[in-house]
Specification:
The structure holds 2 protein chains of 2 kinds. Chain A is α/β, with parallel strands linked by helices. Chain A is built from 9 helices and 10 strands. In chain A, strands 6-7-8-3-9-10 form a 6-stranded mixed β-sheet, with helices on both faces. Chain A has a 4-stranded antiparallel β-sheet with strand order 2-1-4-5. In chain A, α3 packs parallel to α5. Chain A is globular, with a radius of gyration of 19 Å. Chain B is mostly helical. Helix content of chain B is 69%, strand content 4%. Chain B contains 16 helices and 4 strands. In chain B, strands 2-1-3-4 form a 4-stranded mixed β-sheet. In chain B, α10 packs across α11 and α10 packs antiparallel against α15. Classes of the chains: A alpha/beta, B mainly alpha. At the A-B interface, α2, β6 and α3 of A face α1 and α9 of B.
């Protein structure tokens, strides 16, 4: 379960002064549900997800992730979260097995448990062939599978995906989408950020449209279609964003 | 803070680093082979050049003296100087280093000496040029002996003993044991290398584990783990420190081996060479107090913590490995300057200097390799360096916890 309450994050920039990257964002995601955070580049998606994963600390507001508060129990939050982003890379000089095992140890798992989890995940993700190959020798698809295994080693209740398909080819991107669906099927709470409209349509139970740090619209795809009188997700997004500008003017 | 987490991070970093050729080169190959090799080579070349210069009689021109055959003949007969034909451009020839010095003998010098009239010889030389300096020394020696001889002859002519003007002799004898002489002669260079290697050994891992990880995207990956950031930073920091100390220890082992091998080789050749050169001990390497050398390493440990923490913190600010390099590389000057000041003659360790980081270790190391143990100053330096190191480490931990530093893009 994710419960974001008035999440706000401000940064200070010497030239631009105070920047509100995330401005009073509240939403709720239940187990077995995929929440899609849709926004353009720089809209505040990554910052919101980093706040939920406790990589950043909110300036105001808070969030409860898997029953733990991001402000007071950041380590416990991270122990219950699997965070996968296009920017989370692998250690080039470790093998896939060593890399996944390292995160198992960091998550406090015992060695026999780590070995069993790696064996299980390798079978599930078809990784046995390259498990003992160094990460810098892996193909993009193999790297993606290794990253997925890393996020799942501690079997977290909450999965956070930050634009995970950026830079991937069609096949690797499809594998990710399939994996996200599997997470939902297993009852995990999933939040997925993207600027690709088709991914939202394919995956998400609920969509939040974020722009300039604020959540402008939220609801199931059908509800948003009804609200904006449009079938196409891209049109809905443009209407939501331009509507906010018109309101601001 | 959990020891298990710190150990997990540290062991992963060790494994990662040991697979990196660049780290192995900077941590093991450079200090083990290159540094002592270069030092030894440079030392041998300098030693040979100086000995060759000493062994060759410097060329000297005599200006004037045509009417004083006695002194010019005596000078020409001296084996320690080589008299060459005087040319009109003798000043230019000294400047061109074609001759090393010239001596001007005033008119009627022989007559003046015989009559007891005052006279003055002038030596022309090129200040700062080593061989010209040797020529001046030889000319001074020759004319001092010539003057003493004249005095003895005058006294004898008057029926007086030579002890009238030389009532006693002066002899200087060394009481310092060989390791102290050695310590003073080459003692400065060993701590200098240890300081430098403690810094350079930490540099690559400090950059790689901070800015390098940011650049490659693994920093965000590791921050996703539930491990508290203080554990992450300490695990990484321990790796940087281990690299620094490994570099120093490799250098220590290699220096000890170099000195032992060189000592044995030179000892074999030493007896014959000493007999031929008539300068016993010249061809032997000065010995270093081994306990003193270990003490230097002990003093370098807290300094290595300081170096590792400072480089770690500075590199953490950078967005990329290259940017970090441009921040950290100039710091090497900050190490070299106090280390070199410590070498300068006349600077003695005192309680005030014992509080200046780097300089204090440089100064005390010079004493330690000479077998001098000022325990109160050693304690003061060790404790103060530990305190600086603790502050630097606290700053490193603090910086790692700052979002604007860790996510600076």
């Amino acid at each position: 379960m994710i419960d974001a309450r008035n999440l706000t994050k401000t940064f200070h920039d010497r030239k631009r002064g105070e920047i509100r990257a995330v401005d009073g964002v509240s939403f709720h995601v239940s187990p077995g549900q995929i929440y899609g955070l849709l926004g353009a580049n720089g809209a505040g998606k990554t910052t919101t997800l980093r706040l939920l994963a406790t990589l950043l600390r909110p300036s105001r507001g808070t969030a409860v992730v898997a029953g733990c508060d991001v402000l007071t129990q950041p380590e416990r939050v991270r122990a219950n979260v699997g965070f996968l982003a296009a920017s989370t890379a692998l250690y080039a000089r470790l093998t896939a097995r060593e890399f996944i095992g390292y995160f198992g140890r960091l998550n406090g798992l015992a060695e026999p448990e780590i070995a069993a989890r790696i064996a299980h995940l390798a079978t599930e993700l078809d990784m046995h062939e390259f498990l003992d190959r160094r990460c810098d020798k892996l193909s993009t698809g193999m790297k993606q599978k290794t990253s997925i295994a890393r996020t799942l080693i501690h079997d977290p209740a909450v999965m956070i995906f930050d634009e995970p398909t950026v830079g991937l080819d069609v096949m690797a991107a499809r594998a990710i989408v399939q994996f996200v669906r599997q997470c939902r099927a297993r009852g995990k709470t999933v939040i997925y950020s993207t600027h690709v409209m088709s991914e939202v349509e394919k995956l998400c139970d609920t969509v939040g449209i974020i722009h300039e740090g604020r959540l402008l619209a939220e609801g199931a795809i059908e509800a948003l279609q009804a609200q904006f009188g449009e079938r196409d997700m891209e049109e809905i997004f443009v209407r939501a964003v331009t509507g906010s500008r018109e309101t601001a003017v | 803070m959990h020891a298990t987490n710190i150990a997990t991070v540290f062991l992963k970093e060790v494994r990662d680093m040991l697979r990196d050729r660049r780290t192995l080169i900077s941590m093991i190959v450079v200090p083990t082979l290159l540094m002592p090799g270069l030092t030894f080579l440079a030392g041998m070349v300098a030693y040979k050049v100086v000995n060759k210069a000493r062994a060759t009689a410097p060329t000297v021109m005599i200006v004037g003296g045509a009417d004083s055959p006695r002194v010019t003949r005596a000078l020409a007969a001296d084996p320690k100087v080589q008299i060459v034909r005087t040319t009109a451009d003798w000043r230019q020839r000294i400047a061109d280093k074609a001759v090393r010095a010239a001596v001007e003998i005033p008119a009627h010098f022989d007559d003046a000496l015989a009559e007891g009239a005052p006279a003055e010889v002038t030596i022309f030389h090129y200040e700062g040029e080593m061989r010209s300096g040797f020529a001046v020394n030889e000319l001074r020696r020759f004319f001092s002996e010539y003057r003493d001889q004249a005095v003895v002859e005058r006294l004898a002519a008057r029926g007086l003993p030579s002890t009238l003007v030389k009532p006693f002799e002066i002899t200087a004898r060394n009481v310092a044991p060989p390791e102290k002489v050695g310590g003073n002669a080459i003692g400065w260079i060993i701590p200098y290398f240890f300081l430098l290697l403690a810094f350079t050994g930490a540099m690559y891992p400090a950059l790689d584990l901070t800015a390098g990880e940011k650049e490659r995207g693994t920093m965000e990956t590791i921050l996703c783990s539930p491990v508290p950031r203080v554990d992450l930073v300490l695990g990484k920091f321990l790796m940087v420190l281990a690299a620094s100390l490994a570099t120093v220890l490799c250098s220590l082992a290699s220096t000890a081996a170099t000195l032992a091998i060189a000592g044995t080789l030179l000892a074999d050749a030493g007896a014959g060479a000493a007999a031929r050169a008539g300068a016993a001990g010249m061809s032997q390497l000065p010995s270093i107090d081994p306990i003193g050398m270990l003490a230097v390493v002990a003093m370098v440990i807290p300094l290595a913590v300081l170096f590792a923490a400072v480089q770690f913190t500075v590199a953490l600010f950078a967005k990329s490995f290259k940017e970090a390099q441009s921040y950290v590389s100039p710091l090497i000057v900050v190490i070299i300057v106090p280390a070199v000041i410590g070498i300068l003659p006349g600077i003695e360790l005192n309680a005030r200097l014992a509080l200046i980081p780097i300089l204090n270790v440089s100064l005390v190391s010079k004493e330690l390799v000479s077998g001098v143990w000022h325990w109160h100053l050693i304690t003061l330096i060790f404790v103060s360096t530990c305190a600086y190191a603790a502050v630097a480490l606290a700053v490193a931990v603090r910086m790692f916890e700052r979002e604007d530093v860790i996510f600076r893009t």
